[in-house]
Amino acid sequence: MVGDIAHICNRGVEKRNIFLSKQDYIRFRDNLFLLNNVDGKIRTRETNIRNVDNSKQKKLVEILKWSLLPNHYHLLVVEATEGGILEFTKRLGNAYTKYFNLKNKGRSGYLFQNKARIILIIDDSQFLYIPFYIDLNPLDIRFHKWKQRHPAVNESSGFLKSYEWSSFKDYFGNGNYECVISKDKFYDLFDTNVKRYEKELFEFMASATVSTWQVDTL
Asked: What domains can be seen in the chain, in order of their start residue?
């Protein structure tokens, strides 16, 4: 239903890595923008999506948050067109699997372990927790057992603001791909702003227990 908010996630079959190179990450990130169009993939000769004219784009979803890790991805979206969440999720999975299989010398078969999980955000605990979960997820790459040890805020913040494969950089760092996300929509829906959200995010990180992170994990 239009206006529904959902957390979408999936990982590689047998937990295998789905991103093997920088180009793989770029391809998936660009598809977040190019496939988010009711009439089909946006066709362009531009090599950088920052330069694509999106004035005629009719979005399937508003993307609020995204993060990519070597073997899985997370998205937070709002349905913009009826049926948009399901259609967008299918397009992402099918398009990336086709690209990955062709790129890797004719590989065939499934890349993702199953159908992507689409988890509707229907209660207050999910509403408050999921944006934090998606933004903090890349810390797994930099800080071993960070959920138990809670790294210093300045170290965590510095890493997240420089991590290239997440929307965090576009919210708080010097990112260049705001065309993918709907920042104003996020701040409006979650009744927050830049300073308040960042403060609450790192307070949550410092106080969350290990069991907290087991909710909706892949």
From this structure: 5-214 (3.30.70.1290)
